[in-house]
Amino acid sequence: MGTTVSPERVLKELSALWVSYGKEGAAGDGGGVLRACSMTLVVLAEGSDDAAALGETIAALMPEHPARAIVVSLSGAGPRALADRVQQQCWKPFGLGKQICCEQIEITASDEALADLPSVLLPLAVPDLPVMVWCRSPRLVRKAEFGQIARMATKVVVDSAAFADASDAIRWMAGAAESGLTIGDLSWTRLTRWREMLSHVFDNRDYLAKLSGIGEVRVEFRRPLGVSAWLMGAWVAGSLEHAGVKAALSVVELDGAGADPGPRVQLTGPNLHVELSRQEDRLVIEVNSLSSCTNLPQPSDYLLMREELGIVRRDAVFERSLASAAHLAYPTDK
Amino acid sequence: MANENPFQDPLRFERQVPECAVVIFGANGDLTKRKLMPALYRLAYDRRLSTGFAVVGSSRTPLTDDQFRENMQAAVKQFSEDTDFDADVWKTFAQGLFYVAGDVGDSGLYDGLRQKLTAIENERHTGGNVMFYLSTQPSQYAEISHGLGVAGLGKGTGWRRLVVEKPFGHDLASARELSDRLHEVFSESDVYRIDHYLGKETVQNILAFRFGNGIFEPLWNRRYVNHVQITGAESIGVEDRGGYYEEAGALDDMIQNHLLQVMATIAMEPSASFRANSVRDERSKLLRSIRPMTPDEVRQNTVPGQYGPARIGGMDAVGYRQEKKVSPSSQQNTYAAVTFFIDNWRWAGVPFYLRSGKRLPKRVTEIAIQFNSAPLHLFHQDGASSGANLLIVRIQPEEGISLRFLSKLPGAGMTLRPVSMDFSYGSSFGERSPSAYETLLLDAIIGDATLYTRQDMVEASWSVVEPIQNLWRQSRHVFPNYPAGTWGPEAADEMLARRGHVWRKP
After folding, report:
1. Is B137 touching A (CB cutoff 8 A)?
2. pLDDT in the model for residue A111
3. For residue A196, what is the nearest residue in chain B, using CA coordinates?
4. CA–CA separation, B221 and B200 (whole Å)
5. How far apart are the C-alpha atoms of B424 and B401, rounded to whole Å?
């Protein structure tokens, strides 16, 4: 294992790799290679993370979000280690002779070498394009080196469901957002289709007219979806408040095992009962006596990241809901 | 009471879809089974429809609601190309499917529809919004519209919209007459003339490409563009549509509507906003700027064709005149090539070559914009290829955009070779593109008519096609004039050669 990484050498190796791919393409089917890049994607993952699954996720993301992917594998404690490897992710779209390729740089860093990471990542970022940091390691976000990496990012994406403590996750995210970081949380992304379906219900004028009667909002969840549940509750309550409706909110954690596998959201008033629940790969929406059902696959990392990488600016609705969730879940905080 | 839905989140949510019922006339027809119902099911599958969304099918065949649901389920299973059939999603979607049988000339049909729509409005909270989709013979459009008007269905507590499929008339006079009849019941803003080409992602992307980027628009004019080729090629023959084709032909079936609309999108001026009427005003203005041809110009600038028999890939392909329901001495065109000129400051003198045909070597629709060559050839160019830059917008089958430019061959010399910079829609955005019908149905439900054809656009395109139509009808053509599986008649190549141009072979 090496102890230094020279960004200039990495870039030179990447360049050589492109030349060799170009030659192979010209010599082979003549289709050549097309280089595609719309961002730099920095993935910070623990060494214990499933590298094969992560590789597949990144490969799946590339056709929609072609990127220079820099995967940093954190090897934890132990002797100082910093090493790199460059490769390419290529695919051949159906019907086209040409291969489309993206660059991938793999860096292994021990905790002792973390301080060197920002100086390596900065020159490796593609100029003029957004830098998206996907931090899969909850332990890393508390480290000072992470702050430096986050500052060079256009957006930082975390998954608060991976944090050991929901309270800790909400507090950290709310603080980071307040400090000016553009942050994305996969716990929030998991809610998009739920929120969208709930919103669709109130696109109907008849139901919108009954909105003011809603007096109770109940969100039921099982671990590890605590942050999602609080964000959902905060978003519903906040949206109702925006419309001048005060409703009692309860966020209820159910026992681990139960017949009902997924979360449930209920809005109740004298003339209206709206309920959203997951049943396997489907989302079921009940509005009084009417029921409808739509496709809702279990959100994989790929699906969640695909959505997050498509949003490069600040998400005001999320930030508002996050601040509100922090206040609702932990009212004793400032 | 809240006036606006407080749960909206435009950053992440798809467009809002209002509650409504869709009434499909011709509900047992091919279009309903192959396109409309799979598209509606896909929209339901993708969570795009409102909870109480309903469809009322109507045709002459007596069916119960349940029989109609079974038929539509079979159609969705058979014709949904890239959507898994989900029994649970279908079950809740099918609860909103209803059927009313009757003859479009019988007032009883419209009474039955009114009762059904009232019940749906009460039970499924559709707010009185109804979209009528005419998937019938065009000769029935006016009759159905009239029937809806007499029964008072043209107005209600919510909005009412009418969607009609092409052809919109068979010449200028009949197009005007049809519009007049529809306007007796529906205002022009409520009439949605569907041209499924405009629903294709790449056609929409032309607007994004042209007006979302700063670098192309300055080149988009007569100073830099040498000529434009628009090709709509089919590899199949007329199959079992011989009867229809004997009435329509390539000129009326493709060039008058699809290709002229594509041409209008490529050549229109930037609109002041992306509102429906603003964009359609510019398309319409462009169509009205196309120079109508004199009979002499028609002879010079158009080429009709008809395919003859040939052997393709070891298989015998029959000629058009040997197809079913086609006259053995038919004078109908299965191929049409036309050179149009646009009389405005941007495009004066730039030829727009449009061609469409059946039984061409491959199915492809594309726009090729050839830019002027560099004024001086300083460098040696590899091979015989032209040095002109070419921008190709592929509409189908592989949607995308390519830019061809010259690059130096590696080495000591200064030899140039054309290279291509590709943007492939499918690969650059790995997401499945919605079908044209999904896009257009959703637009009509939302009330966005940007991709629909307006009456003045229909009339403008008939105005430029009619002189060609008239001369071709009067002439005796020597048909067939191209073998199946080739790129059309030689006369079409000569038409371009007169201006020093060559058809692309896509």
Report:
1. no
2. 86
3. B13
4. 25
5. 6
Q: Give residue-wise pLDDT tens across range B215-253.
A: 888 999 999 999 999 999 998 888 878 888 888 889 998
Query: Which helix (H) or strand (E) segment is B37 a member of?
Result: helix B37-45
The Cα angle at residue B428 between residues B423 and B431, in degrees rounded to 5 = 140
CA distances from B73 to B67, B77, B155 (A): 10, 6, 31
Mean per-residue pLDDT, B187-200: 87
Quick one: closest CA in A to B14, which residue? Answer: A196
Question: Does the beta-carbon distance from B92 to A206 stay under 8 Å?
Answer: no
Checking if the pLDDT of B384 tops 70, the result is no
pTM of the model: 0.79
**Strand positions, DSSP E, B50-96:** 54-59
Whether B139 contacts chain A with CB within 8 A: no
The residue in chain B having the minimum alpha-carbon distance to the alpha carbon of residue A37 is B428
Write the single-letter amino acid at A16.
Answer: A
Identity of the residue in A60, A98, A212 whose CB atom sits nearest the CB atom of B2 = A212
Across the interface, of A100, A192, A287, the residue whose CB is closest to B427 is A100
Contacts of A23 (CB under 8 A, 6+ apart): none
Ranges under pLDDT 50 in chain A: 94, 334
B258 is catalytic: yes
Strands B160-165 and B191-194 come out as parallel
To the nearest whole angstrom, how far is the Cα of B71 from the nearest Cα of chain A?
21
Q: Please indicate whether residue A103 or residue B187 has the higher confidence score (pLDDT).
A: B187
CB of A150 less than 8 A from some CB of B: no
The pLDDT value given to residue B427: 47
Q: Given this model, what pLDDT does residue B424 score? A: 63
Question: Are residues A232 and A276 in contact, defined by beta-carbon separation less than 8 angstroms?
Answer: no
Largest Cα–Cα separation, chain B: 83
- Which tokens belong to A198? 């709930």
Do residues B166 and B195 touch, judged by C-beta distance below 8 A?
yes
Mind giving me the DSSP string for B151-203? Answer: TTTTS-SS-EEEEEESP--SSHHHHHHHHHHHHTTS-GGGEEEE-GGGGSHHH
* % of chain B exceeding 90 in pLDDT: 60
Whole-number Å distance between alpha carbons of A279 and A128: 44
- The C-alpha atoms of residue A277 and residue B328 are separated, in whole angstroms, by 63
Cβ-contact A292, B92 below 8 angstroms:
yes
Put simply, whether A276 touches B (Cβ < 8 Å) is no
Q: Using CB atoms and an 8 Å cut-off, which of residues 52-71 of chain A contact chain B?
A: 60, 63-64, 66
CA distances (Å), B319 to each of B5, B332, B384, in order?
59, 12, 35
Q: What is the DSSP letter of B434?
A: P
Distance from the Cα of A52 to chain B's closest Cα (Å) equals: 21
Give the span between the Cα atoms of B378 and B500, in whole angstroms.
Answer: 22
Q: Do B430 and A64 count as a contact with CB atoms less than 8 A apart?
A: yes
B-chain residue closest to A188, CA distance = B12
| CB–CB contact A208 B429 (8 Å) | no
